[in-house]
Amino acid sequence: MGETINAGIAMMKVLEDWDVQQVYGIPGGSINSTMDALRVEKDKIAYIQVRHEEIGAFAATAHAKLTGKLGVCFGSAGPGATHLFNGLYDAQMDHVPVLALIGQVRTADMNWDSFQEMNENPMFADVSVYNRTVMTAESLPHVVDEAIRRAYKENGVAVVTIPNDLGTKEIPSEFWSSGHSYVQPVLPAPDSQMVKKAIDLISTANRPVIFAGIGVKGATDELIALAKHLKLPVVMSSISKGIIPDDFEGNMGSAYRVSTKPGNETLEQADLIMMIGADFPFGRTKDLFKPEAKFIQVDIDSAKIGKRHDVDVPLLSDAKQTMVQLVAQSKEVAHRPFYEACVANMKNWRAYLQQLADKKTEPLEVGSVFKQINRVATGNDVFAIDVGDVTMNSLRFLNMNPKQKFTTSALFATMGYGVGAAIAGKLTYPDRQVFNLTGDGAFSMVMQDVLTQVKEKLHIINVVFSNESFDFIKDEQEDEKQKFFGVDLQGADYAMIAQGMGALGITACTHEELVAAFDTAIKVEGPVIIDVKIRNNRPLPAEKLQLDPATNSAQEIADFKRRYEAEALQPFSVYLNEFEVE
């Protein structure tokens, strides 16, 4: 036998070739060979010891969402493996590349019902695009290399189960990896005849709208140019927050429940919707579109076209190239009444949000907290957003630009995402200011991993919106006319808990304390937890508006405006009439 290399170390060399920077997980007896290989290669790949494997999976997923590059996590056999599922399903549903390394008992102990032995392949079959158990030490680096290629190709989760003894064996050193030769696929250019059909359809529409998804990432200028050129209001998917600036006049925000008022109203009134790089499940299930609305759909995945609605003009093509061609092949629209009505509607909505943000009442309001977040933001920040009312409020109140990063658990919508996502954000972008915005319900699920932030000396500003309630679910119970049950939370002093873990903990109950908390938070070196005690108020339900005299009684409108402090908020019909929209 010629020169050899340890199989586990060979696997690490494969990860290095694919430019993996961090691996997240917790040691365990069935994954010790992988741990030893990480020890040997620690100067090239950082091992991040989390306190729960779920957080490791969230961090790996967030890394992929923020960078487009592979995230890597691991778990030992049995409970270590099953703890990964929440994060892996988040990666699956939001279509990002993640590699999960799963421990297994040694080969001699397999199929003997050994301690912690599980048949892990079928467990991970549903969540993965690639799922293999390594059978020989010699194949270990090859299987991992193949897994990574598949994760990138399918934008999904690849799972490799490794019997622990295989990583300890010597194998021939002539193994290879394909990371250095990986080439991004060339995205399809649009068919010029289909572009012409799209332009013709837009030209005959009175109320055309763009719905832009994560597929427009990297095409900020092109999207804005198209919106301006053809006077098309833009509704964004929630996960696409920040791709175009929030202060762009044509940005209507997001739709359905975690939404803005103009986002929903714009889609509801549209007679033509151009979906660009978007997969919007609520479009069909929540009746957000007019039945007679026409659709243009731009996507690089043929399986997405026609998935949610009938499509009049399908464009299997790259979003950026398509938008460039739509501008190049069309005449500029100087005046579109619907666009102008949408812009006026958004101005009215922004004035409403500013009114809420400027309040100095106590107990504190959500808007007041976001005013301080926007005040201390650098313009180059990373925002890790948890799930619940905080998702909706972040989409409404955060003032973002394309230099900033926004990540949340979108289609899977799992609580607890923020802590791990913030860890990945700070490790990936160490020179940026990183926020974790979370409710007390989500934070209390995963707050043990503040210890990871402390251990890694990560300056993360964790903002906990404490109102002692699962408010997002409470609002659903209200809408379904149920009696509230199971939604009240036991409160806690999260600042004191933070202090006990070695982080800086600050409680803010007054406006003065709130301002001081953020002034302090931006100056310290390690993690900060700002426990903001807020009023338990429901955010305005943009999907259930009661503002229009054509559909609501005077009493309903008065009650709605009183409850949500929305005296100055106008129904969209006011602007449709003002600008004489057909």
TrEMBL record:
<dbReference type="InterPro" id="IPR012001">
    <property type="entry name" value="Thiamin_PyroP_enz_TPP-bd_dom"/>
</dbReference>
<keyword id="KW-0670">Pyruvate</keyword>
<dbReference type="GO" id="GO:0000287">
    <property type="term" value="F:magnesium ion binding"/>
</dbReference>
<feature type="domain" description="Thiamine pyrophosphate enzyme TPP-binding">
    <location>
        <begin position="386"/>
        <end position="532"/>
    </location>
</feature>
<comment type="similarity">
    <text>Belongs to the TPP enzyme family.</text>
</comment>
<dbReference type="InterPro" id="IPR000399">
    <property type="entry name" value="TPP-bd_CS"/>
</dbReference>
<dbReference type="InterPro" id="IPR014092">
    <property type="entry name" value="Pyruvate_oxidase"/>
</dbReference>
<dbReference type="InterPro" id="IPR029035">
    <property type="entry name" value="DHS-like_NAD/FAD-binding_dom"/>
</dbReference>
<dbReference type="Pfam" id="PF00205">
    <property type="entry name" value="TPP_enzyme_M"/>
</dbReference>
<dbReference type="GO" id="GO:0047112">
    <property type="term" value="F:pyruvate oxidase activity"/>
</dbReference>
<feature type="domain" description="Thiamine pyrophosphate enzyme N-terminal TPP-binding">
    <location>
        <begin position="6"/>
        <end position="120"/>
    </location>
</feature>
<dbReference type="InterPro" id="IPR047212">
    <property type="entry name" value="TPP_POXB-like"/>
</dbReference>
<dbReference type="InterPro" id="IPR047210">
    <property type="entry name" value="TPP_PYR_POXB-like"/>
</dbReference>
<feature type="domain" description="Thiamine pyrophosphate enzyme central">
    <location>
        <begin position="195"/>
        <end position="326"/>
    </location>
</feature>
<dbReference type="Pfam" id="PF02775">
    <property type="entry name" value="TPP_enzyme_C"/>
</dbReference>
<protein>
    <recommendedName>
        <fullName>Pyruvate oxidase</fullName>
        <ecNumber>1.2.3.3</ecNumber>
    </recommendedName>
</protein>
<dbReference type="InterPro" id="IPR011766">
    <property type="entry name" value="TPP_enzyme_TPP-bd"/>
</dbReference>
<dbReference type="Pfam" id="PF02776">
    <property type="entry name" value="TPP_enzyme_N"/>
</dbReference>
<keyword id="KW-0786">Thiamine pyrophosphate</keyword>
<dbReference type="InterPro" id="IPR012000">
    <property type="entry name" value="Thiamin_PyroP_enz_cen_dom"/>
</dbReference>
<dbReference type="InterPro" id="IPR029061">
    <property type="entry name" value="THDP-binding"/>
</dbReference>
<dbReference type="InterPro" id="IPR047211">
    <property type="entry name" value="POXB-like"/>
</dbReference>
<dbReference type="GO" id="GO:0030976">
    <property type="term" value="F:thiamine pyrophosphate binding"/>
</dbReference>
<keyword id="KW-0560">Oxidoreductase</keyword>
